[in-house]
Amino acid sequence: MDGEDDGLRDYHGKRDFGRTGEPAGPGAPGEGGDGPPRFVVQIHDASTLHFDFRLQVADVLKSWSVPKGPSADPRDKRLAVPTEDHPLEYEEFEGVIPAGEYGGGTVIVWDHGTYEPLSHDRRGRPVDFAESLAHGHARFRLHGAKLRGEYALTRFRGGPDGGAGADPAWLLVKTAGGGRGHGTPDPRRARSARTGRTLARVAAEDGEE
Known about the structure:
Strand order of the largest sheet: 1-2-3-4-9-8-7-6
Order of helices and strands: HEEEEEEHEEEH
Oligomer: single chain
Distance between the termini: 37 Å
Radius of gyration: 17 Å
Number of strands: 9
Helix content: under 10%
Structural class: mainly beta
Mean pLDDT: 88
Number of helices: 3
Shape: globular
Strand content: 35-45%
């Protein structure tokens, strides 16, 4: 996956932590803790309203911008554009990023939980999740408050325009195998899995701080 060895360099380079309340992260490896890997889906009302889908891989959250949000319908193939890695602490971030800062706008945590890597080779042997992402196809089972069941991320060649120089893009798809969850919400009416707040309420309450 492009930028896999950059750690949080891109994330730090885009933000002024004297202005934004986003977490800077520990700045050191080995802070991931024990237990199954985590995931989070945030709704982000920035220059465009979109969903951010993040999976813990080692000590960072690998991240994709999903304009239409994840779907519980296997027939829906949702565009997922990779963004910079985020620190693990970002799973809990909810608030208002100041205007003028990268990604300025309101963020809520729509769903979060754990996931199980499901990728395997042709002989059925498990494949390291970071390796499966590097090869452009990863399967996993989500255990969230709203999203449950098996999903896959697949990189498609040449990006959405098909050109060799195009930026990489992925598809996020609910697979047919098991698990039922919430469908894609109306982002303006959706409530945070952490606080029960909507985007409008977070903007009103946190925007004055």
